[in-house]
Design a protein that fits this description.
The complex is a heterodimer of chains A (513) and B (366). Chain A has 17 helices and 20 strands. With 513 residues, chain A is an alpha/beta fold. Chain A folds into 3 domains: 1-93 and 169-179 and 200-237, Rossmann fold (3-Layer(aba) Sandwich); 100-168, no CATH class; 274-508, Rossmann fold, CATH 3.40.50.300. In chain A, strand 4 and strand 5 (76-80) form a beta hairpin. In chain A, helix 12 crosses helix 13 (384-397), helix 12 packs parallel to helix 14 (414-427) and helix 13 crosses helix 14 (414-427). The two termini of chain A are 30 Å apart. A two-stranded antiparallel ribbon of chain B has the order 1-2. The chains are: A alpha/beta (513), B mainly alpha (366). The A-B interface holds A 316, 318, 337-339, 342, 348, 350, 355-362, 366, 370-371, 373-375, 377-379, 381, 388, 392, 402-404, 406, 424 and B 1-3, 7, 12, 15-16, 19, 215-219, 221-222, 224-225, 228-229, 231-239, 296-297.
Chain lengths: 513, 366
């Protein structure tokens, strides 16, 4: 059931220091539709959502919401909504259910539904009765008096949605609701979404899972680099096209760049440096196989959230490994925690530099020597002079721009922080280095330096696994690509198959064009 | 501006001094204020007299000696508390209760089941080592709650905070054993012939040990890294849980040392009073030193200095006949001022003011 427009965002702009997070973005939502908001990391999805929900205040543009009344001709009337806080958004009928459930697990389902809404006095019987009716009408398998924490994650999510719906929302935003659900739970959630759609609610669905988009959505709006790429009816936008729109590469007018250096020449008849068989971790990826040879640069590719990072984290022992085996130079090894991997000559530059990489308040010097120091041992600290000498060597080698080696790393720019983390791992002289999004959020010059470095390491006989969201970058550096979709490996591309078209088609999967 | 300087040793040392100066700025100013206040109010505060005690041994006395004497207990605790704060981002509030336990254990080993033995049943060193072991075990208990069960440090240590003094009393069947032999009192008072209180030497030894530990192990690097970013630390091969556990056990050791001093001072123990509220002073010492109570970076000298400043303040208040029941209120006022001054928000503001003023005086810097 699709009726008129309920929300019109026009010319939305949002600036952060040094970044135009959103530039003139239009977004239209109709009541009774499920509308996917798609885009890669940094495309502006979450900024747009945050502008709509009042977390950020927009710097330009208008947000129009349909009034409940219609004019004489039956035409919908719109009024401008001034959303300056989440409370404003709620008053305008916009509700959000976030990825992390923002409810209280130790309260009952009914209490969660009414929390913050009932004033000082609560009519408990009435509250439970109303909740019961609502749960029934939405077919949610929970009882009002049940403790929320005792429900499955999916049901908790549904309760959060029911709460939003009960607050008379006309626009419901679901931000990555399915990322922690299993397949059956996702099905239940979709059923609820379809029910709400029938009731005339407009749903904005943010997800990384392509299959899910094509299962429930009616329309897709694609953002890239803070600008609107377009709005499409789902039937008009096959997967391959969607992927190309998100990545900003048109399939047709592409001239493929062949790898500049000859990194493809890897002897596959030797024992692999590292071989993983049926490896699976607790991060929700399907078991996967992986091999890398001496002097090879390979890579994991796929959309954000497809499980690329989870695979390398499993290899490094960063997540809990649940099964499978790992062979290093043909020898079976057990890697249970990062230090095991480090001792076997593996280095890992993590995806989330802030959370997993830097130790912000420590000096550049301490950040550089950290991994090698830990490998050397607790009772054998480097002398200050030795640490300083190593730090200076790598600051010079990678041209890190820092006032001194004493400066806390948190004060450096993103690119320089990344170089410091890179220095940390180069210092440990690993045989196998994993670079997970090493070039994200850093300037183009540093990007190319890092790509060259990966190739140089391979030329020196090291092995490198490279992960990047940018396909061009992957094609330039890798001689073999492992393609992932929806948390499992769906293909491996070699030699002639390494073209943008082929990579994108494999990422998109489903219907080939 | 400074990056283009030649890489000689001098600017490096200068920078290091500059960093230390910033962290020590607040405690030094606090100390200075207290000194000036006392100088104006009554300069006799600073008088030190050489006298003789009841055993006819030479002893130094005076307010400054009191500060050094009692401040030493606090300084020893501040060492452990600093490490705990750095690694776990929280504080151990069971320190006072644990001191009661450690003291009780020492008396139990020395007295056995008698309440007034003629001779000690074991060498003092044995009693002390047993107390160390017990205090480290209790430290490990707190530490594992924090490290493995991820309970907030204050909540985790609340258990021992509540139960500790009862456990201490239970160890000696609620009796108050008294040790008659004078050697036992040396640790908390004076060694014959040496006019300086023994706790000063004990604290100095502890400081030396922690200085060496920080220099010759990675204790400092690990606990700071874990406190700042546990995820990153783990990915660099550190086991954050074990590091946290170790810091709590080190605090346990500090507790045992203070326990020995405490029972040695009076040759007996009073379970409900011994080291009462000392944990709060120890935590304040860390905060006064300009260390973030949220964990991460720390300066050990600053914490130790903070401990002596708190004792300076307490002694000053005693000197001016502030009633012991009203003491905490006076202390609180001073502490509020100091803690607010050293709060990151305020410091940032001060730094901004400094920056804007230094821009005007660029010539001076060059």
């Amino acid at each position: 059931m699709e009726t008129g427009e309920v929300l019109k965002m026009r010319g939305i702009c949002k600036y952060f220091p040094g970044v135009n997070a959103l530039q003139n973005v239009d977004f239209t939502l109709r009541s009774g539709e499920i509308h996917a908001l798609m885009g890669e990391n940094g495309a502006g999805k979450s900024t747009l959502i945050k502008v709509l929900t009042g977390v950020y205040v927009k710097d330009g543009g208008t947000i129009l919401i349909r009034k409940n009344t219609s004019d004489a001709a039956g035409e919908a009337e719109f009024e401008e909504a001034h959303i300056r806080s989440p409370q404003d958004a709620q008053n305008s009928g916009i509700s959000t259910v976030y990825q992390e459930i923002a409810l209280c697990p130790n309260l009952s389902v009914a209490e969660n539904m009414f929390i913050g809404r009932s004033g000082a006095f609560t009519n408990w019987a009435d509250m439970n009765k109303k909740t019961g009716e609502l749960l029934k009408s939405l077919d949610i398998p929970a009882t009002p008096r049940q403790q929320l924490g005792s429900c499955s994650i999916a049901v908790q999510q549904m309760v959060a949605i029911a709460r939003a719906v009960d607050m008379k929302c006309r626009v419901l935003i679901l931000d990555e609701p399915t990322s922690s659900l299993d397949e059956q739970e996702v099905e239940k959630l979709f059923k609820l979404m379809r029910d709400l759609k029938e009731k005339g609610v407009g749903i904005i669905f943010v997800t990384h899972f392509l299959d899910q988009v094509y299962e429930v959505c009616d329309r897709i709006t694609v953002l890239r680099d803070g600008t609107l790429v377009g709005e499409y009816v789902i039937e008009d936008l096959p997967r391959v096209k969607l992927v190309s729109k998100m990545l900003g590469k048109d399939l047709d007018d592409m001239s493929d760049i062949k790898s500049e250096s000859d990194v493809g020449a890897v002897d596959r008849n030797t024992t692999p440096v590292l071989e993983a068989v049926n490896l699976v971790s607790n991060a929700g990826i399907k078991p996967f196989d992986f091999t890398i040879y001496k002097g090879e640069v390979n890579g994991f590719t796929g959309l954000l959230g497809s499980g690329r990072s989870e695979c390398v984290r499993a290899i490094f022992g960063a997540d809990k490994v649940l099964g499978g085996k790992v062979l290093i130079n043909g020898q079976r090894v057990r890697i249970k925690k990062p230090i095991d991997a480090m001792k076997h000559g593996i280095g890992y530059l993590p995806e989330d530099r802030k959370k997993d990489g830097i130790v912000a308040d420590l000096s550049v010097r301490d950040n550089i020597i950290l991994a090698l120091q830990v490998m050397k041992g607790f009772f054998r600290p480097f002398s200050k002079a030795k640490a300083e000498q190593m730090a200076q060597e790598y600051i010079k080698l990678l041209d890190v721009k820092t006032a001194s080696s004493d400066t806390p790393i948190g004060q450096l720019s993103g690119g320089n922080q990344q170089k410091v983390i890179l220095a940390r791992w180069l210092l440990t002289n690993p045989d196998f280095l994993i670079l997970d999004e090493p070039t994200r959020g850093i300037d183009i010059g540093t990007k190319i330096e890092i790509q060259k470095l990966a190739l140089k390491l391979a030329a020196e006989g090291k092995s490198v696994t490279f992960i990047s969201s940018e396909i061009d970058e992957m094609l330039r550096t890798c001689s073999r690509l492992i393609v992932m979709r929806d948390r499992k490996v769906v293909g491996e591309l070699n030699g002639d198959e390494l073209t943008r078209n082929k990579v994108m088609a494999t990422i998109a999967g489903g219907e080939e064009k | 501006m400074t990056s283009s300087r030649p890489l000689s040793k001098k600017p490096f040392v200068q920078k290091l001094i500059a960093v230390t100066r910033m962290q020590l700025f607040i405690p030094v100013m606090a100390l200075l204020l207290l000194v000036i206040f006392n100088l104006i109010a009554d300069p006799s505060f600073f008088a030190i007299k050489l006298g003789y005690n009841s055993a006819n041994q030479p002893v130094l006395s005076g307010y400054l000696i009191t500060i050094l004497d009692y401040g030493s207990e606090l300084a020893i605790l501040a060492i452990g508390m600093t490490l705990v704060t750095s690694a776990s981002g929280g504080q151990d509030i069971s320190v006072g209760a644990s001191i009661a336990i450690a003291g009780s254990v020492i008396l139990k080993v020395l007295c056995g089941n008698e309440s007034r033995p003629d001779h000690m049943k074991a060498p003092i060193i044995v009693a002390f080592l047993v107390a160390c072991l017990v205090a480290m075990l209790f430290g490990a208990f707190n530490g594992s709650l924090v490290a493995f069960f991820k309970i907030q440090p204050m909540v985790a240590t609340l258990i021992l905070f509540t139960a500790g003094r009862s456990i201490a009393a239970w160890i000696n069947n609620n009796e108050l054993p008294i040790i008659a032999e004078p050697e036992f009192s040396y640790f908390g008072t004076f060694i014959p012939g040496i006019p300086i209180p023994t706790p000063v030497f004990i604290a100095a030894a502890c400081m030396l040990i922690i200085f060496l530990a920080l220099k010759f192990t990675n204790l400092g690097l690990y606990s700071q890294a874990v406190g700042i970013n546990p995820h990153s630390s783990r990915l660099n091969g550190i086991n954050p849980a074990v590091v946290k556990l170790i810091t709590y056990m080190i605090l346990g050791l500090c507790v045992a040392v203070v326990g020995l001093i405490k029972v040695s001072r009076i040759s007996t123990i009073n379970y409900s009073v011994v080291a009462k509220d000392i944990e709060m002073d120890a935590i304040l010492a860390v905060a006064l030193g300009g260390n973030s109570l949220g964990g991460g970076k720390f300066s050990m000298p600053a914490s130790i200095m903070g401990a002596y400043i708190i004792q300076f303040l307490t002694t000053t208040l005693y000197k001016f006949n502030v009633d012991s029941t009203a003491l905490p209120a006076y202390k609180a006022v001073v502490v509020i001022i100091l803690v607010v001054l050293s709060a990151p928000v305020v410091r940032e503001k001060i730094n901004q003011l400094k920056k804007s003023s230094s821009k005007k005086s660029v010539k001076e810097a060059a």
